[in-house]
Amino acid sequence: MRMKAAVLYEQGKEHPFTESNPLVVEDVDLESPGDDEVLIRTGAAGLCHSDLSMIRGVMERKVPMVPGHEAAGVVEEVGEDVTQCKPGDHVVMSFVPMCGECEYCATGRPNLCSTAFNARATGALVNGHRRLSLNGEPLHHTNGVSCYAEYMVSCENSVIVIDKDVPMVDAALFGCAVVTGVGAIVNTAKIPPGSTIGIVGLGGVGLCALLGGVVAGAGRILAIDIADDKLGLARQLGATDTFNASDPDCVEKVIEATKGGVEYAFEVAGAVEAMQTAYAITRRGGMTVTSGLSQHQHTFEIPHAELVVNERAIKGSYMQHPRTMSQIHDAAHFPGPGPG
User: Fold this and answer.
1) If DSSP codes are grouped into helix, strand and coil, which group holds residue 262?
2) Same domain flag for 135 and 230
3) Which of 306, 280, 276 is nearest to 294 (CA)?
4) pLDDT in tens, 9-25
5) Which one, 1, 36, 247, 316, has the greatest CB density within 10 A?
């Protein structure tokens, strides 16, 4: 079929994108889905920070490509071997599909699927195929999704069926921001109810992490950012305390307010400075979790002895593929804070 799609021909163009114009809308060809693939009509697509990183060349990818990995849509057609969805289903796209066969999938860590990781590097779907082309020349897929287009063809393990009452614009966030933010709380850190947690960075992922803390029953949620308007929004969504990171005494104030620091600190800004803040506000015996993606050449240093004598833990959290269909269903319906 012929459809319109945004094509990225080269990486490395910088802001302002209204002047550098990195994306070109083209009439491209999309092949019909294969036996284990699904055709989806795009309902909504998000612009994630990592999409901008791909455009700028911070994350290297095969070009030309159709970008976009955070999306929701409606199933139009399925291959003959597809069993997880049917035409008419509303779905969220998963940009880290699971092959079900590699070591990570077999041990319950599908977000680290090595087959999906290798396919991403080559610009193919997780099954190795490409379904996009322009003037007879192949176009590369982005993380098996490529949602900056009217339609998508993806492997069935890249789609998760959701209820039809979830608005598409909201549902699109579930494919990246929600599972990354909420997943860091409930899957990576596994915070127990009553915990004191700190969220450093209040973008889309950070606010989802905050809501994940609300759902998980955190007793105290400290929100930290450099923007006062984001701090105000965080209070509306359930933060019990807010701190402006531009305050030179921010770390000391958090430690004083919590009598030693938070039990769990989450860095979700994708900046080393934010990671330094998250680590500094974590109490002895606590855990610092990072799900932000800074540039590859950036490093984070810690005193080795301090890590040992304080029994500190540092964990990375990548995307956190929902463990079950019900988990993303719950994420699609998680409640906000009550009045007051």
Assistant:
1) strand
2) no
3) 276
4) 999 998 899 999 999 99
5) 36
pLDDT at residue number 324: 40
Please check whether residue 181 lies inside any domain of the structure.
yes
In the chain, the number of structural domains is 2
168 in any annotated domain: no
User: What are the structure tokens assigned to 186, written together?
Assistant: 């409930």
What percent of the chain is predicted at pLDDT more than 70?
Answer: 94
Q: What is the pLDDT of residues 153-201, one digit of tens each?
A: 999 999 999 989 999 999 999 889 988 999 999 999 999 999 999 999 9
Q: Which residues, including other chains, have CB under 8 Å from residue 207's CB and lie 6 or more apart?
A: 181, 230, 233, 234, 237
d(CA 140, CA 51): 14
Same domain for 151 and 16, yes or no, is yes
Residues 52 and 157 in one domain: yes
**Distance from C-alpha of 317 to C-alpha of 54, rounded to nearest angstrom:** 20
Does residue 157 share a domain with residue 9? Answer: yes
How far is the C-alpha of 212 from the C-alpha of 55, rounded, in Å?
30
Same domain for 157 and 180, yes or no, is no
pLDDT tens per residue across span 134-144:
999 999 999 99
Q: Which residue, among 232, 230, 200, 228, has the nearest Cα to 213 in the 3D structure?
A: 200
Quote the CA–CA distance of 143 and 98 in Å, as a whole number.
12
Which CATH number fits the domain that encloses residue 24? Answer: 3.90.180.10
Give the type of residue at 131.
R
Phi, psi of 215 (to 5 degrees): -65, -40
For residue 225, list its beta bridge partners. Answer: 244
What range defines the domain where residue 307 resides?
Answer: 176-319
Q: Cα–Cα distances in Å, from 221 out to 24, 185, 193, 194, 210?
A: 42, 12, 12, 10, 7
**339: pLDDT confidence band, cut at 50, 70 and 90?**
very low
| Secondary element (H or E) of residue 279 | helix 272-280
Specify whether the CB–CB gap between 56 and 163 falls below 8 A. no
